[in-house]
Amino acid sequence: MPSPRPAQDAGQPPEQLHGVLEPIVRDAGFELDQLDVRAAGRRHTIKVVVDSDSGIGLDDIAHLSRLVSAELDQHEHLIGGSYTLEVTSPGVDRPLTGPRHWRRAHLRQVAVRTREGATFTGRVGRAGEDAVTLLVDGQLRELRYADVDHAGVQVEFRPAPEAELQLLQGASEPPQEDTA
Fold first, then answer.
1. Summary count for the chain: helices (H), strands (E)
2. Which helix (H) or strand (E) element contains residue 52?
3. In DSSP terms, which residues pair with 106 in a beta bridge?
4. Gap between the terminal Cα atoms of the chain
5. Which of 11, 48, 101, 165 is the most exposed place for a label (fewest CB within 10 A)?
6. b/e map of 93-123 (b: 16 or more CB within 10 Å)?
7. What secondary structure letter does DSSP report for 85?
């Protein structure tokens, strides 16, 4: 009997598995943020990280776990052995690497390190396709994603100051046309 095919090469999930799971997650109203397959002998751990602009709750995770598990059972040849399934949402320690991450961090406090080595903390405003507006030391600042070396959400134990939220929410709205 031939030995099972490894589920991954160099830490990359098999493209076929991604192609099988992505539509299931999308049809459930979420986004497949990350797929990680790890092998330990003949046992595998499949970690499916899902997200959405409106967030994801525990009931959503349970529902997706059932859907993904049923689909994996139909494609067990892609795994090559027994597996443990983990369906989760991204943690707050996930780096902000693309526009969708910045949009989901709207009004959250973030720590940023630029490619030039500058570091600062700011609150996230409007996130566009190429840049994000941040409130840094009371001033609105536009930061291009290309200039970011690393950025991550900061855990806050108090509500954000109302003045900061109002300033950012005002900056998020399109300018009003002058009808006079």
1. 4, 8
2. none
3. none
4. 82
5. 11
6. ebebeeeebbebbbebbbebeeeeeeeeebb
7. E
Find where tokens 């002998």 sit. Answer: 41
**Residue 46 in tokens:** 């499949």
CA gap 130, 150 in Å, rounded: 16
Residue 129 tokens, joined: 């396709």
Instruction: With 0.90 as the threshold, say if the pTM is over it.
Output: no
109-165 pLDDT, tens digit each: 999 999 999 999 999 999 999 999 999 999 999 999 999 999 999 988 888 889 898
109 in Cβ contact with 156 (< 8 Å): yes
Contact assessment for residue 113 and residue 149, using Cβ atoms and an 8 Å cutoff: yes
Residue pair 139/83 in contact (Cβ under 8 Å)? The answer is: no
